[in-house]
Amino acid sequence: MKNHQLKKEDPHLLLQSAPLLRQELTTPAAMKDVWIALLPATAASLWFFGLSALLIILTSIAGAILTEWVFTDKEKRRFAISDTSAGLTGLLIALTLPPGLPLWMAFLGGCVSIGLGKVVWGGLGSNIFNPALLGRAFLLGTFPIAMTTWGAAGGPGEFFQIHSSNLALPFMQSQVDAMSAATPLGLMKFEQQGTALWPLFTGNTAGSIGETSALFLLLGGIYLLLRRGIDWRIPAAIFLTAALFSFIMFLTDGDKYPSPLFTLFSGGLLLGAFFMATDPVTSPLTPRGCWIFGIGIGFLVVLIRLFGGLPEGMLYAILLMNAATPLIDRYTQPKIFGRQG
Amino acid sequence: MATDVSAYEEMIKGLWRDNPVFVQVLGMCPMLAVTNSAINAVVMGLATFFVLVTSSFLVSSFKQWIPKQVRISLYVIIIATFVTVVDYSILAMLPAIHKELGAFIPLIVANCMILGRQEAFASKHNVKYAVMDAVGMSGGFMIALLALGSVREILGVGALFGVDLFGANFEPWVIMILPPGGFLTLGLLLLFFNWFTERRRQFLIKVADADRMLAVEKVSTEGVKDNG
User: Fold this and answer.
1) Chain A hits for B184, Cβ within 8 Å
2) Distance of alpha carbon A297 from alpha carbon A313, whole angstroms
3) Which range marks the domain in which residue A252 is found?
4) Do the interacting molecules here have an ipTM over 0.85?
5) Is A316 part of any domain?
6) What is the pTM of this model?
7) Distance from CA of A133 to the nearest CA of B (A)
8) What residues in B contact A71, CB-CB < 8 Å?
9) A66-85 pLDDT, tens per residue?
């Protein structure tokens, strides 16, 4: 502000303290890129799940921002909220929630992801685990039934049909929703029933509100890659490992195990690979570390999906590798130039 | 009279200022394992109360005759005796709760809070102080157990001491009665406790500062008066 005023008066008298070279990439700018990248997936979620999706997104963002506001020092509040990282966490956790989830749970999810996922560790940049996934893990452990009851995808024609379970009173159970359906992964796991690739690719399937549409997630992911907002090695390693591992399993028993394309386009793999595993705070810093991190996630997600008790493994795959991140960073430090060993 | 006041202080310190759970972070094993309902927490608290008070009494009575080299094993024998008494009593009186507490009643022997009080306090003080200290410490332990057990039962089942609080439609927070809920609740309670203590400390500093400022002001104004 001051500098600008000086500039106007006399450009030769511009006084500035170091650093004189400034990078454009600030936290709000990086966040803005992620917001833009998430727009297509969010729009797709509104298209398929209607007003329910919108309400869930808004309540969980509200929960996240409110928690950030309450637990931040008075002086830092303005900056903490305006870098939009809290709202982004709220949006990310909302995209991983089922469309019929009671709104109070979505609100609680937002609160927990910021409160237990970020604030208790010391705020932005100090957390070990991805806040949004931590919030989702909490919800999945706390309300296992509500978190695995999926509403079928509709279309724009059913935009105003809210799931009745959305409107359950706080702390109260939701009534069983008539519109529930099984996710492609659930069908695969429990009934050995595949899903056609085209609906899987466009997103017209049951599932979490933001994870179904592979197409729009890919669009957002490619935008982020072009803007260099994320390290390309992490999603690349995840896709390659998951595809390779599931291809090997597919070759051993094609009826029992899904094809690699199904593995890539179903569940939260794309959402997780582009937007959650690449969180700069909780992923490794070194290129070699990024490869190890991505390979670990890709391996774990297929392992959990095919051999674990849960139909979807992205959540725990990323959280487990988050826990391993400090270790990976430590053992992949590049050698200092000129130093032996 | 003076001795009575300090004996009272020995008791009261365990309840809050030196609370074995919130401040010393001792006895975590029963703390996390048996607090999934308030009634379990109370029974565990009472069992610990009995064991700590009686063994503190015995240890401080016998402290002259306990050789220094074997004191720890003697403490453990004394504690284990009372734990056996408690174990059989609960089995006889409350078999259902005994089944739920399971291995954690025999494990009171290994509760570091109890052994710690023998080593740090009962073996160095006379019987009256030792018993008062034991009462305070186990009281503080019980408060912590009850706090954790109540939170976990209210959220996890929607009830307190088995009494339904919210009606049939309550959505239970399943995680709260599982082990992660114990860690989460304990962490949050510790957070709250530390926050509260820090607030109180800051407040006391502020009051002390204000007092000092007032005293300085008084002196300076008096000085002005004298000169005038």
Assistant:
1) 116
2) 9
3) 28-170+180-331
4) no
5) yes
6) 0.85
7) 16
8) none
9) 999 998 888 888 877 888 88
